[in-house]
Amino acid sequence: MHELVTFQQHKVGRDQRAANLGHYEGFRGCTIWFTGLSGAGKTTLSFGVEKALTKLGIPAYGLDGDNVRHGLCKNLGFSRHERTENIRRVAEVSKLFADMGVITLSSFISPYRNDREEARRIHESESLPFFEIY
Length: 134
Ligand SMILES: Nc1ncnc2c1ncn2[C@@H]1O[C@H](COP(=O)(O)OS(=O)(=O)O)[C@@H](OP(=O)(O)O)[C@H]1O
Ligand SMILES: Nc1ncnc2c1ncn2[C@@H]1O[C@H](COP(=O)(O)OP(=O)(O)O)[C@@H](O)[C@H]1O
What we know:
By secondary structure, this protein is α/β, with parallel strands linked by helices. The chain has a single domain (28-133), classed as P-loop containing nucleotide triphosphate hydrolases (Rossmann fold). 43% of the residues lie in helices and 14% in strands. It is built from 5 helices and 4 strands. It has helices at 14-19, 42-55, 65-68, 80-100, 113-124; strands spanning 30-34, 60-64, 103-107, 130-133. It has a 4-stranded parallel sheet, with helices on both faces. Helix 4 packs parallel to helix 5. Pathway: Sulfur metabolism; hydrogen sulfide biosynthesis; sulfite from sulfate: step 2/3.
Protein backbone atom coordinates (compact mmCIF):
# COMPACT_ATOMS: atom_id res chain seq x y z
CA MET A 1 0.00 0.00 0.00
CA HIS A 2 1.25 3.50 -0.78
CA GLU A 3 2.53 5.33 2.30
CA LEU A 4 0.28 8.34 1.58
CA VAL A 5 -2.88 6.20 1.85
CA THR A 6 -4.25 6.82 5.36
CA PHE A 7 -7.14 4.91 6.90
CA GLN A 8 -10.10 7.24 7.52
CA GLN A 9 -12.36 6.76 10.56
CA HIS A 10 -16.14 6.81 10.09
CA LYS A 11 -18.18 9.21 12.20
CA VAL A 12 -21.01 6.69 12.62
CA GLY A 13 -20.77 3.78 15.10
CA ARG A 14 -22.22 0.28 14.91
CA ASP A 15 -24.99 1.04 17.42
CA GLN A 16 -26.10 3.96 15.29
CA ARG A 17 -26.08 1.86 12.13
CA ALA A 18 -28.02 -0.89 13.90
CA ALA A 19 -30.68 1.59 15.04
CA ASN A 20 -31.49 2.27 11.38
CA LEU A 21 -31.70 -1.39 10.38
CA GLY A 22 -34.49 -3.94 10.61
CA HIS A 23 -37.15 -4.58 13.22
CA TYR A 24 -34.89 -5.81 16.00
CA GLU A 25 -32.64 -3.88 18.34
CA GLY A 26 -28.91 -4.34 18.43
CA PHE A 27 -26.00 -4.78 16.08
CA ARG A 28 -25.89 -8.26 14.53
CA GLY A 29 -23.46 -7.76 11.65
CA CYS A 30 -21.43 -10.90 11.01
CA THR A 31 -20.36 -13.23 8.23
CA ILE A 32 -21.53 -16.81 7.84
CA TRP A 33 -19.06 -18.44 5.45
CA PHE A 34 -20.15 -21.54 3.50
CA THR A 35 -17.21 -23.56 2.16
CA GLY A 36 -17.36 -26.80 0.16
CA LEU A 37 -16.93 -28.47 -3.19
CA SER A 38 -18.92 -27.44 -6.23
CA GLY A 39 -22.38 -29.00 -5.90
CA ALA A 40 -22.17 -29.38 -2.10
CA GLY A 41 -25.22 -27.15 -1.57
CA LYS A 42 -23.57 -23.84 -0.56
CA THR A 43 -25.77 -21.61 -2.72
CA THR A 44 -28.98 -23.46 -1.86
CA LEU A 45 -28.31 -23.17 1.87
CA SER A 46 -27.02 -19.61 1.93
CA PHE A 47 -29.78 -18.23 -0.29
CA GLY A 48 -32.33 -20.17 1.80
CA VAL A 49 -31.00 -18.58 4.99
CA GLU A 50 -30.98 -15.18 3.26
CA LYS A 51 -34.66 -15.60 2.40
CA ALA A 52 -35.61 -16.75 5.90
CA LEU A 53 -33.79 -13.87 7.61
CA THR A 54 -35.16 -11.31 5.16
CA LYS A 55 -38.71 -12.56 5.85
CA LEU A 56 -38.07 -11.90 9.55
CA GLY A 57 -37.01 -8.33 8.75
CA ILE A 58 -33.33 -9.02 9.46
CA PRO A 59 -30.94 -7.52 6.89
CA ALA A 60 -29.05 -10.31 5.14
CA TYR A 61 -27.19 -10.64 1.87
CA GLY A 62 -25.91 -13.67 -0.02
CA LEU A 63 -22.55 -13.22 -1.72
CA ASP A 64 -22.01 -16.15 -4.08
CA GLY A 65 -18.96 -17.29 -6.05
CA ASP A 66 -20.80 -17.64 -9.35
CA ASN A 67 -22.26 -14.12 -9.05
CA VAL A 68 -19.18 -12.33 -7.75
CA ARG A 69 -17.18 -13.80 -10.61
CA HIS A 70 -19.47 -11.89 -12.99
CA GLY A 71 -18.39 -8.56 -11.47
CA LEU A 72 -15.95 -7.81 -8.67
CA CYS A 73 -13.80 -10.85 -9.50
CA LYS A 74 -14.44 -11.27 -13.21
CA ASN A 75 -10.74 -10.92 -13.99
CA LEU A 76 -9.89 -13.95 -11.83
CA GLY A 77 -9.62 -17.61 -12.83
CA PHE A 78 -9.08 -20.74 -10.77
CA SER A 79 -5.33 -20.99 -10.23
CA ARG A 80 -4.14 -21.22 -6.64
CA HIS A 81 -3.09 -17.56 -6.69
CA GLU A 82 -6.35 -16.36 -8.28
CA ARG A 83 -8.52 -18.30 -5.83
CA THR A 84 -6.57 -16.72 -2.95
CA GLU A 85 -7.14 -13.25 -4.41
CA ASN A 86 -10.82 -14.06 -4.99
CA ILE A 87 -11.27 -15.05 -1.34
CA ARG A 88 -9.33 -12.04 -0.09
CA ARG A 89 -11.56 -9.67 -2.08
CA VAL A 90 -14.83 -11.27 -1.06
CA ALA A 91 -13.71 -11.49 2.57
CA GLU A 92 -13.04 -7.74 2.51
CA VAL A 93 -16.48 -7.09 0.97
CA SER A 94 -18.12 -9.43 3.49
CA LYS A 95 -16.42 -7.49 6.28
CA LEU A 96 -17.79 -4.19 4.96
CA PHE A 97 -21.34 -5.60 4.74
CA ALA A 98 -21.01 -7.06 8.25
CA ASP A 99 -19.70 -3.74 9.57
CA MET A 100 -22.84 -2.13 8.15
CA GLY A 101 -24.87 -4.52 10.32
CA VAL A 102 -25.84 -7.03 7.67
CA ILE A 103 -25.74 -10.81 8.20
CA THR A 104 -23.53 -11.70 5.25
CA LEU A 105 -23.89 -15.18 3.78
CA SER A 106 -20.78 -15.87 1.74
CA SER A 107 -20.70 -19.06 -0.33
CA PHE A 108 -17.38 -19.87 -1.98
CA ILE A 109 -15.56 -23.12 -2.61
CA SER A 110 -12.64 -21.51 -0.74
CA PRO A 111 -10.65 -24.75 -0.85
CA TYR A 112 -7.54 -23.53 0.98
CA ARG A 113 -7.49 -23.41 4.78
CA ASN A 114 -5.05 -20.48 4.80
CA ASP A 115 -7.46 -18.38 2.72
CA ARG A 116 -10.38 -19.16 5.04
CA GLU A 117 -8.21 -18.34 8.06
CA GLU A 118 -7.30 -15.02 6.43
CA ALA A 119 -11.02 -14.33 5.85
CA ARG A 120 -11.61 -15.00 9.56
CA ARG A 121 -8.71 -12.75 10.55
CA ILE A 122 -10.04 -9.93 8.34
CA HIS A 123 -13.30 -10.05 10.33
CA GLU A 124 -12.04 -10.75 13.83
CA SER A 125 -9.43 -8.01 13.65
CA GLU A 126 -12.40 -5.64 13.52
CA SER A 127 -14.42 -7.52 16.16
CA LEU A 128 -16.89 -8.92 13.64
CA PRO A 129 -18.05 -12.52 14.22
CA PHE A 130 -17.13 -15.05 11.52
CA PHE A 131 -18.75 -18.49 11.35
CA GLU A 132 -17.39 -21.13 9.01
CA ILE A 133 -19.96 -23.67 7.77
CA TYR A 134 -19.00 -26.84 5.90
N1 LIG B 1 -12.39 -24.91 -12.68
C1 LIG B 1 -13.35 -24.56 -11.83
N2 LIG B 1 -13.19 -24.89 -10.52
C2 LIG B 1 -14.13 -24.53 -9.64
N3 LIG B 1 -15.27 -23.83 -9.93
C3 LIG B 1 -15.47 -23.50 -11.23
C4 LIG B 1 -14.52 -23.83 -12.21
N4 LIG B 1 -14.98 -23.34 -13.39
C5 LIG B 1 -16.16 -22.72 -13.14
N5 LIG B 1 -16.47 -22.82 -11.84
C6 LIG B 1 -17.66 -22.19 -11.23
O1 LIG B 1 -17.19 -21.20 -10.29
C7 LIG B 1 -17.79 -21.40 -9.04
C8 LIG B 1 -16.75 -21.37 -7.91
O2 LIG B 1 -16.29 -20.09 -7.69
P1 LIG B 1 -15.69 -19.70 -6.28
O3 LIG B 1 -15.42 -18.25 -6.36
O4 LIG B 1 -16.58 -20.17 -5.19
O5 LIG B 1 -14.31 -20.57 -6.25
S1 LIG B 1 -13.06 -20.38 -5.26
O6 LIG B 1 -13.56 -20.20 -3.88
O7 LIG B 1 -12.27 -19.24 -5.70
O8 LIG B 1 -12.29 -21.65 -5.38
C9 LIG B 1 -18.45 -22.76 -9.04
O9 LIG B 1 -19.70 -22.57 -8.41
P2 LIG B 1 -20.31 -23.63 -7.37
O10 LIG B 1 -20.57 -24.87 -8.18
O11 LIG B 1 -21.59 -22.97 -6.90
O12 LIG B 1 -19.35 -23.87 -6.24
C10 LIG B 1 -18.58 -23.14 -10.50
O13 LIG B 1 -19.88 -22.90 -10.96
N1 LIG C 1 -29.58 -30.62 0.96
C1 LIG C 1 -29.66 -30.98 -0.33
N2 LIG C 1 -30.12 -32.18 -0.67
C2 LIG C 1 -30.20 -32.57 -1.96
N3 LIG C 1 -29.85 -31.79 -3.01
C3 LIG C 1 -29.39 -30.58 -2.74
C4 LIG C 1 -29.25 -30.09 -1.38
N4 LIG C 1 -28.74 -28.84 -1.42
C5 LIG C 1 -28.56 -28.56 -2.72
N5 LIG C 1 -28.96 -29.57 -3.50
C6 LIG C 1 -28.90 -29.62 -4.98
O1 LIG C 1 -27.54 -29.82 -5.33
C7 LIG C 1 -27.22 -29.04 -6.47
C8 LIG C 1 -26.04 -28.12 -6.16
O2 LIG C 1 -26.45 -27.20 -5.14
P1 LIG C 1 -25.81 -25.77 -5.02
O3 LIG C 1 -26.49 -25.09 -3.87
O4 LIG C 1 -25.82 -25.05 -6.33
O5 LIG C 1 -24.32 -26.14 -4.62
P2 LIG C 1 -22.99 -25.27 -4.64
O6 LIG C 1 -23.41 -23.82 -4.49
O7 LIG C 1 -22.21 -25.76 -3.45
O8 LIG C 1 -22.32 -25.55 -5.94
C9 LIG C 1 -28.49 -28.27 -6.86
O9 LIG C 1 -29.12 -28.96 -7.92
C10 LIG C 1 -29.32 -28.30 -5.61
O10 LIG C 1 -30.71 -28.28 -5.91
